[in-house]
Amino acid sequence: MSRIEVIGNATLYLGDCRDILPTLPKVDAVVTDPPYGLGSKMQGGTWGAKEEMLDWDAEAPSVDLLLSLSNLGKFCVMWGGNYYGLPPSRSWLVWNKANAVPTMADVELAWTNLDRPAKRFNGLVGRVEFGHPTQKPLDLMKWTIAQVDYCCRASSILDPFMGSGTTGVAAVQMGRDFIGVEREAKYFDIACRRIEDAQRQGRLIA
Question: What is the pTM of this model?
């Protein structure tokens, strides 16, 4: 099953990114948070104890697929990059989780191809408000896009592992064009609703 939704300046694809990516235009930046392949290592007391998390994060994308993402945009940021065996990077991004629970990582790392010093974001781990087991906080994804902007303003952003659409909401709220790909229909529908709400709020503000 495949589907395309155009919501303002966002184009969202329901399907496997391996099939869809070859059909997409180049963008300024790829900003994404793929599965880490840690499902079997999750412990109790967190979302990791839930079957959904164990299934969703059971397998990480191949290194070849992730490396190909850097050809789709001038800049690329991948959260969880330390798990994939990617090339050395000058500019790792670090999310320092001020309220991390003992069974989860205190920090998360993003691999980038940015040519600037490594940077740190101090922020809280948010609640899973929209049903996705590894939903990133909106302020973290806005900060991530802002790090790309230090090199060159990213007017168009692609997230091939869109999940519940947090990167898309951040992009829309920051006035950027967005392309998102998600293979799970339930998350895709959530992303559509969230991005549509963000577009509507933008129009109201404008």
Answer: 0.87
pLDDT in tens, 135-159: 789 999 999 999 999 999 999 999 9
- Give residue-wise pLDDT tens across range 81-113: 998 999 999 999 999 998 877 777 899 999 999
Mind spelling out the 3-state secondary structure of the chain? CCEEEEECCEEEEECCHHHHHHHCCCEEEEEECCCCCCHHHCCCCCHHHCHHHHHHCCCCCCHHHHHHHCCCEEEEEEECHHHCCCCCCCCCEEEEECCCCCCCCCEEEEEECCCCCCEEEEECCCCCCCCCCCCCCHHHHHHHHHHHHCCCCCCEEEECCCCCCHHHHHHHHCCCEEEEEECCHHHHHHHHHHHHHHHHHHHHHC
